[in-house]
Amino acid sequence: MLANDPVTQARIDLTAALRWAVRHGLNEGVCNHFSMAVPKAVRGREDLFLVNPQGLHWSEITPSDLVMVDYGGKVIEGRHRVEASAFFIHGRLHAGNPRAQVVLHTHMPYATALTSIREGRIEMCTQNAFRYWGRIAYDDAYAGVALSAEEGDRMCAALGDKDILFLANHGVIVCGRSVADTYDDLYYLERAAMVQVLAMQTGRPLLNIAPELTERTFDQIADGTNEQAVLHFESLKRMLDRDEPGWRKLAA
Predict the structure, then answer these.
(1) CATH level 3 topology of 6-243
(2) C-alpha separations of 185 from 61, 130, 180, 203, 230 in Å
């Protein structure tokens, strides 16, 4: 692998996101998946994506552990297996939504708590929540474990033109153009959900902000979100360099 190859950089960024998901408490066992589409210009195909393998804890994954697969489930590059739902969720989202270059799926606790209550929604009651104004779709029809292309396509349709999908009784999916942007969204989504759940536990009414002010604040936040996301993600990689030497390990 060449260090300046875009696929290698994608491997490094996905690995950083997986390792930090553990540190941020967003992971669950060896379940769930982070993936990124491989640009057609790099491999000459439109149906390839990188994804974490089955059976490895996110804290131990290195860039060379990530597997390149096609939408049909065939391993193109890699020495590990990939769990079936990765094909049926991530493959169908990459195939059906060109905006979903990066797809992060977790059962992170506070956001998933909201998916487990009737009409659970991210309420516009905190500044962190305002960045998601108009960006979240809600799939309120749980249909079992995603073990078919039809279920993946149903999720893709439910996502529509949004960036985030709340899956009732299940978890969340966050999509984006880059690992930095998408991980930043995942992180702050859980923070927004956490504060909301804590506020709900008081039994007092949530103090939601009027739509006009919410939209104006969303625009203010959006102006600097990409730069902040890049700065945030680069700082996370520096901390991995400091605390977990060898995390960037590439196969010879």
Answers:
(1) L-fuculose-1-phosphate Aldolase (3.40.225)
(2) 22, 12, 9, 28, 12
Judged on CB neighbours under 10 Å (0-12, 13-18, 19+), 227 is exposed
Find the length of the chain.
252
pTM: 0.95
Cβ neighbour number for residue 16 with a 10 Å cutoff = 25
Q: Among residues 83, 86, 98, 99, which one has the least CA distance to residue 163?
A: 99
E strands, the chain, where?
33-37, 48-51, 67-70, 75-77, 102-106, 136-139, 164-167, 171-176
Domain positions in the chain: 6-243
Q: Which residues, listed in sequence order, are joined to residue 139 by a DSSP beta bridge? A: 167
Number of neighbours of residue 142 by Cβ within 10 angstroms: 11
Asked whether the beta carbons of 52 and 64 are under 8 A apart, the reply is: no
d(CA 85, CA 91): 9
Distance CA 235, CA 148 (A): 38
Average pLDDT over residues 194-206: 98
The average pLDDT across 163-173 equals 97
